[in-house]
Amino acid sequence: MRKKVIAGNWKMNMLPNEAIQFIEELAPMVKDTQNEVVLCVPYTDLFYALLTAQNTNIKIGAQNMHFEESGAYTGEVSGKMLKAINAQYVIIGHSERRQYFNETDETVNKKIKSAFEYGLKPIVCVGETLDQREAGETEEVITKQTKLALEGLTEKQVENTIIAYEPIWAIGTGKTATKEDANNSIKAIRNKIAEIYGQTVANRVIIQYGGSVKSTNAKELFEMSDIDGGLVGGASLKADEFSKIVNFE
Ligand code: PEP
């Protein structure tokens, strides 16, 4: 039985004092959940978030990292640095990074490998654009992104990778994929993993849905056979709303 992982992606929002207040508010509301609760916060919040989340069941992660461990990469943060402050998760290849910051399938693959080197759990985003969906290319696009992201990883690493299926047209737009569409896309990703790494590995990989998840649609999405929780943007910025998504059952 796969665990449900509900991860918030705060994007470029929340000052340290807001992060602290949010986690203090959220912690008692999610303390009894069996689901994994993760907040991926801006770098400037990481230290405060990690301290505040100590002795709670809330895990803290970053939203990006560089694939090199150190060096002349002004403005970048490495997996080694994230590990040193005890971050546990890192989002890799979010569509906003692919779109605005030249993230490619190749850099995504390098970052995942580096994340594992430093014991971080990667949440790897894949998803199609509206044009690709309308051209009937969804399955081809997301399975190719998945294959390239995971290339060269061991079976154990693949099992420990979280994939977030996020149709780009559904991110921040209020439009959600139907639960059937989302489940089918996630099944296609799982089948591709089975084809390369075997069914046992594929059955263990956590694959989330992301794209305008909110408290009013979380239950119907997360109850689908292959959807193992969600990556949540806008609705993760209010503790009360996010707690309802975590406690969707
Ligand atoms: C995201 O940022 O990964 C996301 C899915 O955003 P939203 O929930 O706001 O659509």
Topology record:
Blueprint: E1 5-9, H1 16-30, E2 36-40, H2 43-53, E3 58-62, H3 79-84, E4 89-92, H4 95-100, H5 105-117, E5 121-126, H6 130-134, H7 138-150, H8 155-159, E6 162-165, H9 179-197, H10 199-204, E7 206-210, H11 218-222, E8 229-232, H12 239-246
Parallel strand pairs: 1-2, 1-8, 2-3, 3-4, 4-5, 5-6, 6-7, 7-8
Helix pairs in contact: 1-2, 1-12, 5-7, 7-9
Residues 9, 11, 166, 171-172, 210-213, 231-235 line the site of phosphoenolpyruvate.
Descriptive labels:
globular, binds phosphoenolpyruvate, 249 residues, eight-stranded parallel β-barrel, alpha/beta
Notes on the structure:
With 249 residues, the protein is of the alpha/beta class. 45% of the residues lie in helices and 15% in strands. The chain has helices at 16-30, 43-53, 79-84, 95-100, 105-117, 130-134, 138-150, 155-159, 179-197, 199-204, 218-222, 239-246, and strands spanning 5-9, 36-40, 58-62, 89-92, 121-126, 162-165, 206-210, 229-232. It has an eight-stranded parallel beta barrel with strand order 1-2-3-4-5-6-7-8, surrounded by six helices. Strand 7 (206-210), helix 11 (218-222) and strand 8 (229-232) form a beta-alpha-beta unit. Helix 5 (105-117) packs across helix 7 (138-150). It is globular, with a radius of gyration of 17 Å. The structure holds phosphoenolpyruvate. Phosphoenolpyruvate binds at residues 9, 11, 166, 171-172, 210-213, 231-235.
Whole-angstrom Rg: 17 Å
The rough form would be described as: globular
Number of strands: 8
Quote the distance from N terminus to C terminus: 16 Å
Bound molecules: phosphoenolpyruvate
Secondary structure category: alpha/beta
Q: Kindly state the percentage of residues in helix.
A: 40-55%
Number of helices: 12
How is the main sheet built?
8 strands, parallel, barrel
Strand content: 15-25%
Order of helices and strands, N to C? EHEHEHEHHEHHHEHHEHEH
- The low-pLDDT segments are none
Mean model confidence by pLDDT: 97
Strand order of the largest sheet: 1-2-3-4-5-6-7-8
